[in-house]
Amino acid sequence: MSTTLTSNFIHNKYYKWIVKNLFSSWVNSILTIIALIFVYEVGSFFLNWAIFEADFRTNFQGEVITDRILCSKNIVPGEYGACWAIIYVRWDQFMYGFYPIEEIWRVNFVYALLPLAIVGILFDKIPYRRFFIYFTFIYPFIAYFMLYGGPGISVVGTNKWGGLLVTLFLGVTGIALAFPLSIILALGRRSKMPIIKTMCVVFIEFIRGVPLITLLFTANVMLPLFLPDGVNPDNLLRALVAVTLFQSAYMAEAIRGGLQAIPRGQLEAAQSLGLGYWQTTRKIILPQALKIAIPPIVNTCIGLFKDTSLVLIIGLFDLLGIGRAALSDMTWTKLYYEVYVFISLVFFIFCFGMSRYSLYLEKKLKTDNS
Amino acid sequence: MSSDQVIQLEKVNKWYDDFHVLKDIDLSVVKGQKIVICGPSGSGKSTMIRCINRLEAHQEGTIVVHGTELTNDLKNIDLIRKNVGMVFQQFNLFPHLSVLDNISLAPIWVKKMPKKEAEEIAMSYLEKVKIPEQAQKFPGQLSGGQQQRVAIARSLAMNPDIMLFDEPTSALDPEMIKEVLDVMIQLAHEGMTMLVVTHEMGFAKTVADQMIFMDEGRIVEQAKPDDFFNNPQSDRTKLFLSQILNH
Fold it and tell me: Could you tell me the mean pLDDT of each successive run of 10 residues in chain A, 370 residues long?
């Protein structure tokens, strides 16, 4: 009986896979074991620190943590892990910045509608997609009204916005505004009209040749100079302009790559049927080019989303800015690891989501009939 | 220029930078005429028919289609393209659109036809090229021969009175050539004016009113098929014919 069990085990497909891929030779076996030990050591250390030996709201004595000196690790040095109470206590700031507490429902409302606004763009086979797309175009107005305020609700100046709200606002709005701009830039760069072409090339190359930090400073200092007297756009808007221009240049290059991949015959076929430039572009060239360009476009979006954290240097409190503000609070100072790990996790969730979406699209486009 | 003359080329010259691709081309086509153009690769035969719907611009001479001269005037180009259909060697179907959408696209957007009417027309042309059952498929799902027949239907749906064929069977597997040629022969019998660049000499003998042989950018010989195949005048034509007919 034991022999049949053993032979069953040897013919098991998991067993075969493990032998073939992890223990095929002595070298491979040793590397596998070293890697496993490494993963175990690092993983168990991190999990112990972050979860099993960590404080959440209370310390090991059951007291609610209201100050860093109440963290278990500060009471018994070397015995305990992370002290997440700083995140818990400052949760509202991380999510909303200095938005008035009684108005926070407005931000939550906007957060809750965000998935509905983007689902129609992300997936083409959902039911009632048309209505989701309509909503996508209405959403910015709803979001602006709810966040900033207006008739019927109080105005909350953008200097009160912060944390994830600023990060998402810059990331999502920057990407959304940059998208149409980048299509125009990419088309312009391939235009036969020399002036338009030159303008687009100069714009793209200039923006790509300058660090985002420089652009942010420039927008912050110089934007008011270009506007009429008395018009004094707030800091967040200045940052948004810089971020949008920056993103549009990178996205334009990604789209140009897609445009270049379309065979010339597509253009000729459309022309020979009598389609004009804009009809050909809209119906034939762009649908194919954008499909090809989706992975690099998503790539630039991930880059931009992370780069929004640079706005802290012009005095905006995005997620990272709020984190640094929390650390400078004497009550909570020195809890660096907790704050940075938390911020990393939030950024990671969004960027990983975008990355998976890009992979999903690549797979989908491969099986599509094109 | 007689009234049923539909295409007129006079002293047409074209250069790609320093390379002189078309040299003093004179050609006149009357309504309903079928002209087959052959010649070695690089002889300018494709370039010549691509000049007729301005996919290529000529630099000297005049090209008149339906009494409209081809210049840089976009209005004239649009006008001519609406009446001149073209079929390409590589089919050039739009891969992101279904077969039906490929065909109905231009009627809807260029002729501003209601979608339903355009799709009915598209279906009727798909029946004409004998693949109505493929309407909902995408080009990538069809064989080469089927794709080329869709491309022909797509051109016909604009109801052109001249059709240009640029080596329509050169990219096809041998067993698919016949199904495409059959459609073209049917079209010829219906009286369509056709300019066909091809090396399918059987097809040429069946439908052509005029044969043109081109070499190094010139029309070397132009004759009725009987004379062209049985009694070619120039040595260059004789050599070419002996090479393509003897294999």
Answer: 63 83 89 95 93 88 86 86 90 93 93 93 88 93 92 89 94 94 95 94 95 90 76 83 95 96 95 94 93 91 94 91 90 89 95 92 69
Q: Hey, which bits of chain B come out as E strands?
A: 5-16, 19-30, 34-38, 60-65, 68-69, 84-87, 162-166, 193-197, 210-215, 218-223
With H, G, I as helix, E, B as strand and everything else as coil, classify residue A191: coil
Report DSSP state, residue A65: P
Are the CB atoms for B160 and B107 separated by under 8 Å?
no
Asked if B66 reaches chain A (Cβ–Cβ under 8 Å), the answer is: no
Helix (H) or strand (E) holding A297: helix A286-307
Residue type present at position A76: V
Report whether B96 contacts A269 (CB < 8 A). Answer: no
Contact A83, A65 (CB under 8 A): yes
The pTM of this model reads: 0.85
Q: Which residue has the tokens 């004409």?
A: B128
List residues of A whose CB lies inside 8 A of any B CB: 263, 265-266, 268-276, 279, 283-284, 287-288, 291, 369-370
Q: Where are the alpha helices (DSSP H) in A48-193?
A: 72-75, 85-89, 91-96, 104-122, 129-148, 164-189
Rounded to the nearest 10 degrees, the angle between the axes of helix A286-307 and helix A336-367 is 170
Interface test with A, best of B68, B75, B90 (most A CBs within 10 A): B90
Out of A266, A276, A291, whose CB is closest to B94?
A: A266
Rounded Cα distance between A297 and B31, Å, is 51
Residues of chain B in contact with residue A284, where contact means CB-CB under 8 angstroms, are: 94
* ipTM exceeding 0.90, yes/no: yes
pLDDT in tens, A223-266: 777 777 766 678 898 899 999 999 999 999 999 999 999 999 99
What is the arrangement of strands in the sheet containing B68-69, beginning at the earlier edge strand? Answer: B19-30, B5-16, B60-65, B68-69
Instruction: Name the β-bridge partners of B218.
Output: B215
Q: Mean pLDDT across the stretch B35-52? A: 94
Q: What angle do CA A160, A163, A166 make, to 5 degrees?
A: 70
Where is B189: in which H helix or E strand? helix B174-189
Cβ of A279 and B82 within 8 Å? no
